[in-house]
Design brief:
Elements (H helix, E strand, L loop, with lengths): L1 H51 L2 E2 L6 E2 L9 H15 L27 H10 L10 H16 L2 H16 L1 H5 L4 H8 L1 H18 L20 E2 L2 E2 L40 H34 L3 H32 L7 H9 L14 H34 L5 H25 L2 H27 L2 H39 L16 H8 L1
């Protein structure tokens, strides 16, 4: 009896073990296919959800679907419908008609792996309205350039380029990691690449690499005519510890041939290096800012012409452009004129511009060119005359045009709307131009921080003569350069470049009041789920 019970227990244990092994095998097999099943379920739900949006005709034999479709893809849709009908053995051929919709169509911007990141920058501000000009193609060039103006350093730009190249090479492996920071880096890999390449270029212009200068083409400065406080100093050798006070206006100091590329390396040992770079970068920021805003304002005329709005071309674009160029375009002219002609003037360009705005002219004032006073008075008066055109003439014509279309138009509402737009443009020309000075401020901050790290760390380490001290301080230098100068300064320059595009550039022509075209896509479902 006891033996029979023991045998029975062993048989049951064996059966339970076999059942457990079978269940484990079934579950393992199911686990390997759960991803495919989930994708299939999502596809089926998407298909049935889309079919529920279709209508059935009165015969209950045909399905009528009204969809948004890119015009270039109509041929693909027709071929797909024909292929499905043949595969299903349908006796009725599918019919595809293009109809006019009373609703505003969604916006569809074709993208690839390279342009997707830049399009995301624009879409974060707002999706462009249907057939409105898309700023993304221009952002591909202007965004990394403005970033590089603030971040310009050959060494840091090279490191950023190498990091972007490594991300591009390991794109597939990094996409498998479910990390938000990694996903952002992978999504913006080409943005980082261009920012690094442009930073190398601007670093060459600034002649700045880890706060040190290149002397590739030999300095164009000559010190034969310079005199030191202790007496004449002629034909002697320059050392890195010597400090020169250079003045391009002093005769005989400059050899007459400009340095081949960027800033002359002799400025790196000049005592007035900071004041020179401060003036140079500030004026360059104003030039870049006015050019960038003028380009954005010019793009607005493309929208007006496309939508056949001739009134806005004459009463919005032309007065706004004249107002901008009469004042701040002339400021750029003064900067370039003094640079190119080598004009020396006791008054600064900023003081000349302020006196011009207030018609403040002294009897003994020295002008930098003949007829300057008359030209400046004409430009200011011309700019002021543009204000009543935008403030009075345009709202009156707009009111008359809208009154013919609908009777429910308020003249006060039209005047208030145009007054806000006029005030925003006039004050925006001032504030936006001043906003571009961040290009100058961040560039100087980056170069000065880099020089501080060089002086306080590497210079001390090189003079210590100890290999251990040199190794430890070099590690600190690399850590601080990576964390402060590349990550923090890079993020700061990125955000400021973003603001310059959203506010100063896109506000001149871009409304961004549209909504995205979101087609049924199984690839999007798979990417979103996994």
């Amino acid at each position: 009896m006891k033996c029979n019970i023991q045998t029975r227990i062993e048989e049951l244990q064996m059966i339970l073990h076999q059942c457990e092994e079978f269940c484990t095998a079934v579950l393992n097999k199911a686990a390997n296919r759960v991803t495919d099943w989930s994708i299939q379920v999502h596809k089926m739900k998407s298909i049935y959800h889309t079919l529920n949006l279709c209508n059935i005709d009165i015969t209950h034999r045909l399905t009528i679907a009204e969809i948004w479709c890119p015009v270039l893809d109509l041929g693909h849709v027709q071929r797909a419908l024909t292929k499905v009908a043949e595969h299903a053995g349908s006796s009725v051929s599918p019919v595809l008609n293009r109809i006019q919709s009373p609703e505003t169509p969604p916006t569809y911007n074709r993208m690839n792996r390279f342009t997707a990141g830049f399009q995301q920058i624009v879409d974060t501000y707002g999706v462009n309205s249907y057939q409105e000009i898309n700023p993304a193609p221009y952002t591909i060039v202007t965004f990394p350039f403005l970033f590089a103006v603030m971040f310009g350093d050959c060494g840091h730009g090279l490191i950023m380029t190498l990091i972007a190249g490594w991300i591009i090479m390991n794109e597939q492996k990094l996409n498998q990691q479910k990390n938000e920071v990694v996903s952002m880096l992978v999504g913006g890999r080409y943005i980082i690449l261009l920012m690094g390449l442009f930073s190398i270029y601007t670093g060459l212009i600034y002649n700045d690499c880890f706060s040190k200068s290149f002397n590739i083409f030999d300095s164009s400065w000559s010190v034969r005519a310079m005199f030191w406080p202790s007496g004449p100093w002629n034909n002697q050798t320059l050392h890195s510890s010597d400090h020169l006070h250079l003045d391009p206006a002093v005769p005989g100091v400059y050899s007459g041939t400009p340095y081949m590329l960027g800033i002359d390396p002799v400025w790196n040992i000049a005592s007035n290096k900071l004041s020179f770079l401060n003036s140079y970068k500030m004026k360059m920021a104003v030039i870049i800012g006015v050019c960038h805003m003028t380009f954005g304002l010019t793009l607005s005329v493309v929208n007006y012409i496309h939508f056949r709005n001739v009134q806005n071309v004459l009463l919005s674009f032309v007065p706004e452009l004249i107002f901008l160029l009469s004042l701040f375009g002339y400021l750029v002219f003064l900067i370039l004129f003094k640079w190119c002609m080598g004009v020396q003037c006791d008054s600064s360009i900023l003081l000349i511009f302020i006196n011009m705005m207030f018609f403040n002219y002294q009897a003994d004032e020295k002008f930098i060119y003949s007829g300057q006073k008359a030209v400046q008075i004409f430009l200011v008066v011309q700019a002021l005359l543009m204000v009543p055109i935008m403030l009075l003439i345009k709202p009156l014509l707009t009111y008359r045009r809208q009154e013919k279309i609908t009777d429910q138009v308020s003249l006060s509402d039209v005047f208030v709307c145009e007054a806000i737009h006029t005030i925003e443009h006039c004050l925006g020309c001032v504030s936006n131009t001043a906003s571009y000075l961040r290009l100058w401020a961040l560039s100087l901050a980056h170069s000065e921080l880099s020089e501080v790290l060089w002086r306080m760390l590497l210079r001390v380490a090189l003079r210590s003569g100890s290999s251990l001290t040199l190794t430890l301080i070099f590690c600190c230098f690399v850590l601080l350069s990576a964390s402060v100068l590349i990550v923090m300064e890079g993020l700061s320059a990125f955000l400021h470049a973003l603001r310059l595009h959203w506010v100063e550039f896109q506000s001149k022509f871009y409304k961004g009041a549209g909504f995205k075209f979101t087609p049924l896509s199984f690839k999007a479902k798979e990417t979103q789920q996994w």
